[in-house]
Amino acid sequence: MSFLQYKTHIEEGDLVIAYITRENMMPLIVNPTMTYNNKFGTFKHSDMVGKEYGSKISSHNGRGFMYLLHPTPELWTHVVPHRTQILYIADISFITTYLDLKPGSIVLESGTGSGSFSHSLTRTIAPNGHLYTFEYHEERAKAAKQDFERHGLADLITIECRDVYKSGFEITDTVHAVFLDLPAPWDAIASAKRAFKQRRIGKICCFSPCIEQVQRTCASLNENGFVEIKMFECLIRNQEVHTIPIYTVKDAVSKIKAQQEKKRKRREQDGEKDHTTKSQHKQEPPNLSVSKTPTEARGHTSYLTFATFLPILDDE
Amino acid sequence: MEIDQDQSLSEIVSVTTEITKDIDKNIKGKEVKGVEEVEEIEEIEEIEGEVVEGEEEDTCYIHDNQYVLILLPSGNIKVVKLQKDKKISLGKFGVFHTNDIIGKPFGHSYEIHDRDKIKIIRNVAFREVDETDANNKETIDDPSKQKLSYEDIEQLKKDGLEGQDIIKKVVESHSTFNKKTEYSKAKYIKRKEAKFSRVFTPVRPTLYSVWEYFHTKNPSKIREMRIDSLSQMLTLANVRAYSKMLVIDDTQGLLISGVLERLGGYGVVIGIHDGENHNFDIMRYMNFSKKIYNSLRILSWQQVFKEESQAPFNYQNESKLSEKELKFYHRKKANYERIDSTRELLFKGGFDGLLIASQYQPESILETFIPYLRGSRPIVIYHINKEVLMNTCVHMRISRIYLNPTITESWLRGYQVLPGRTHPSMSTSGGGGYLLKATYIIIDDNNNNNSSSSLSSTNINIIDNEKNMEIDNNNIIKDDNVNNNVVDDNNVDDNVDDNIDDKVDLEKISSKRAKLNKED
């Protein structure tokens, strides 16, 4: 149940996210008979048992260390083995809020993909919500199902391998929110509409990378009676922080002078004997904390198209 | 119900300024008579008094005694507290009876007719815009094209015409309407709707809609936090049922509302507020159930520190108090005991996350609350000014108990999506603020040689002691070689790069530090 509830100490059988570097993390199931090797050395699982989550452990040959982190849906996204296109944190966060998800929400997701967003959704709707998720790729559906079971999420997730374009979701009057990450969401919108709880307001989000998809999606949402059709792009920009010295123009002059002095000395040395010149003590300028965006950054993930499902009226 | 005169007046003023010269001069009188205006901001004294009974499912139906956002035809939003058997005035747009919408599901729009009757509006789909040959070649700004005068429109109203009918008449009376492009026709109709339509929509208060209301009305009140930043805070801090959170909230309760909603009544959050009494005003608009409020504990800054002694409670003999005094006494006593138990809860520690959106220096907040955090738990700090977070980020890198401190800027862009008319919104929010996130980690340098130096003393010494600082910096750079997590690659000196293949003898470094600690 570690995705749904925190633990303090690491026990045998726990899923631990080994943080080696920012780009290199490894999911480990703690088994005291095992060792984990990477280029920084050998780490014995038996050393991990009983440690607090967040502890730093050193490798046995002393070449390096790593941190033992508690799993979260966001860390899982980094380490999910059979990953397809994953959702980014900005999108995950915005969608969760816009769809008004909270404990108790009942959500429909299609497709499941690697199951990484399913983890995030389930974290938010637990302990009394439910996620219905659909994946047409059989192997992926199996792998995701296995992950949900291992991670103690199986009670909260119903996963089905199904081609939703052909056969629809076959869920009626059940869900509060729908998330469609499909190449042609417009072919699933009519079926998604039936899945909504019919007598209350609901929200739908369609996730598409191309603007042409957005336009077809909006037309379909409109035809199917959805209202408040809105579309957003959501990104995060990393800010790299550095501390740098800021030199003045006087420093520029001193730099030239120093170069000239060096040259002069060399010339003198060539001709005559060495003249010792007093070295001027260079004063370091004060440091300044600065930030900049990376030279290359993610410029687009997908367009998020949202709409509202209206409750049906008594005479409908 | 109290009448907030200022509020209702300002409402009228804002409404009247919207009205252009030609119409609706007499709405002032119409509006105020016999209608009670719902006050907007009142002091929260007792949260219990604010509670809406009922389960989650019911929040999709309009309740008696709940807050509702009313979307007006002008696009403005008005907050009202619904109470049965009352009338709500929407200024020039008319009046409605609360009983007509209580019990109905949220989502639908209503049109006011015959002064105070309402009828539900069927969903109107947006229509396709057909391309025509029309263009704006002959468009000139000439008010005389509109044949209807202000007096004519007033007469139409007196004749009993309302909403859509007036809009139709106005469009018919525009002499060159057909020469407009389809786009400008649509625009013209939209403008007239904002003026003459009497359609309003009760909007369900959700984190999004409540945020939108405050962000439009008074962004500085919520420290200009945009919804994408707020949402990211909740995700990054892994806020969910059964967690135990610390929230430093100077956003009038916006942040704490988000946390409370995601806890769903499971788990606990301690909210730290500025001043003597909390000002988490925004919470009330979320219509939280009693169950959700049960997760909330509140402390002032003064109550956070162990060394700040609290005034002891003056226990009295209850039998000697009058009924009125007794009620007051019980409330005071309960309040005292609640604060006392909340302090105990805080000092016991074991918290699962720290969320900060505060006016105070983040470093000083970290210093105060880090001892109460468990390992591998997230810290997320919001600020509208990046510079504040930059200093904190540098501080975090030096102290080593924070894994991967990172500053991000939130970026959000809304689009208009209409058939043939899709483009980014012309005007948009200029910025959503910055987030600094990190994970609290446990550096027990002596885990291999069983020395007794404690975590906290190591860290405090690192900050205070120059000698240790040197070693520590050294270690950070070496950390970086191994972990790439403290300083950005670009910032690492070349000569340090050469060291990458050197064996990093951590034990040597840590025993050196332990020795220095002992020397102190």
UniProtKB/TrEMBL annotation, chain A:
InterPro entries: SAM-dependent_MTases_sf (IPR029063), TRM61_C (IPR049470), tRNA_MeTrfase_Gcd14 (IPR014816). Its main location: nucleus. Transmembrane segments: none annotated. Its EC number is 2.1.1.220. S-adenosyl-L-methionine binds at E135, D181. This is tRNA (adenine(58)-N(1))-methyltransferase catalytic subunit TRM61. Residues 64-308 form the tRNA (adenine(58)-N(1))-methyltransferase catalytic subunit TRM61 C-terminal domain. GO terms for molecular function: tRNA (adenine(58)-N1)-methyltransferase activity. Residues 258-284 have a biased composition (Basic and acidic residues). It catalyses: adenosine(58) in tRNA + S-adenosyl-L-methionine = N(1)-methyladenosine(58) in tRNA + S-adenosyl-L-homocysteine + H(+). Gene3D superfamilies: 3.10.330.20, Vaccinia Virus protein VP39 (3.40.50.150). Keywords: Methyltransferase, Nucleus, S-adenosyl-L-methionine, Transferase, tRNA processing. It comes from the Eukaryota. Belongs to the class I-like SAM-binding methyltransferase superfamily. TRM61 family. One of its GO terms (biological process) is tRNA methylation. One of its GO terms (cellular component) is tRNA (m1A) methyltransferase complex. Catalytic subunit of tRNA (adenine-N(1)-)-methyltransferase, which catalyzes the formation of N(1)-methyladenine at position 58 (m1A58) in initiator methionyl-tRNA. The keyword tRNA processing applies. Pfam families: GCD14. It is found in: Nucleus. The keyword Nucleus applies. Residues 258-297 are annotated as: Disordered.
Automatic annotation (TrEMBL), chain B:
Keywords: Nucleus, tRNA processing. It is found in: Nucleus. Pfam families: Gcd10p. InterPro entries: TRM6. One of its GO terms (biological process) is tRNA methylation. One of its GO terms (cellular component) is nucleus. Belongs to the TRM6/GCD10 family. This is tRNA (adenine(58)-N(1))-methyltransferase non-catalytic subunit TRM6. It comes from Diversispora epigaea.
